[in-house]
Amino acid sequence: MSRESRMNRQRPQICEICGDSLAHQWTNPKTGYTQTRHNSRFCSVPCKAVWDKQRFGGANNPRYIAVVGERPCESCSKLFRPAPWSLRADKGRFCSRSCFAHRRSIWRNCGNCGQLVRRAPSKAKHSQASFCSKLCEGQARRGEKNHFYGKTHTEKTLQQLLAKIHAKPNGLEMRLSALMTERRLPFKYVGNGAVIIGGLNPDFINVNGHKQVVELFGRAFHDPSSIKKLKANIPYRQTAEGRCLIYAEYGFETLIIWDDELHSSEKATLEKICAFSKGGESSVRETTT
């Protein structure tokens, strides 16, 4: 008996699903040679798929999960039917993403009105205070309730802040400083935060032992009556009168030089500074009259 005959007798001759013969004709596309071949157990791919479905379908599948009926949502108690994959991952406890977020949220009382406020765990972890609205947040952090109420920067901190803001003098300050140096006036530029008086940083200070300061102001930033002012409400401590009164509390005389004065006449500006350094009229009296 030939080898092919022995193999044909040992292998199944009919399909396990439909009963058709497993033998089929196969032709080599290159040589044109035709021979008889036998499939192993099934005559076609659809029959193999039917066999796979019978063996691995339903409860025979190792990943099979029985269909679960409706169950109540752990957040809103609404009945819903979870997906099978969610049960396999130990999920399917909430009917929607909003219920899932609602259940995980942390509830706190509003710091102003006491109303319950829902916060995400990530936000509640980094912030202890919770407010129901921006209005409540503003009311709760106003006045004495503010954490920084009554606190001021130290002189060292102000010097560091001003040094970063004014790392170098601006063009007008450099121009006035050069004129003072050329005229040998006893004033030094300290507007980079080198000197702090009453929480304020003057532009120039007397270096001959007299308590005198010179401020170079721009109309747009320090004159409330200016048409070209950049702020709707200029703080009082930034006005010429406010600066003079604050420096006067510490015994300093103040001279205010406006930018338009320097632009119009450098000679008149230097004469004004020279008279001030020799004990002339200060701007304290000029701004208060």
What can you tell me about this protein's structure?
The protein has 289 residues and is an alpha+beta fold. The chain has 3 domains: 3-60, no CATH class; 71-145, Herpes Virus-1, CATH 3.30.40; 155-288, VSR Endonuclease (Endonuclease, Chain A). The chain is built from 13 helices and 10 strands. The strands form 4 sheets. It has a 4-stranded mixed beta sheet with strand order 7-8-9-10, with helices on both faces. The protein has a two-stranded antiparallel sheet with strand order 1-2. A two-stranded antiparallel ribbon has the order 3-4.
Distinctive features:
single chain, 289 residues, alpha+beta, Herpes Virus-1, Endonuclease, Chain A, 3 domains, 4-stranded mixed beta sheet, two-stranded antiparallel sheet, 13 helices, 37% helix, elongated
For the biggest sheet, the summary is: 4 strands, mixed
As for the number of domains, it is: 3
Segments where pLDDT lies below 50 for 5+ residues? 281-289
How much of the residues is beta strand, in percent? 5-15%
SSE pattern, N- to C-terminal: HEEHEEHHEEHHHHEEEHHEHHH
Give the end-to-end Cα distance, rounded to a whole number of Å: 134 Å
Q: Architecture of the largest domain in CATH?
A: 3-Layer(aba) Sandwich
* Sheet with the most strands: spatial strand order: 7-8-9-10
SSE inventory with pairings:
Blueprint: H1 3-10, E1 23-27, E2 34-38, H2 45-56, E3 71-72, E4 79-80, H3 84-88, H4 97-104, E5 106-109, E6 116-119, H5 121-126, H6 134-140, H7 155-165, H8 171-183, E7 187-189, E8 204-206, E9 212-217, H9 219-222, H10 240-249, E10 253-258, H11 259-264, H12 266-277, H13 283-288
Parallel strand pairs: 9-10
Antiparallel strand pairs: 1-2, 3-4, 5-6, 7-8, 8-9
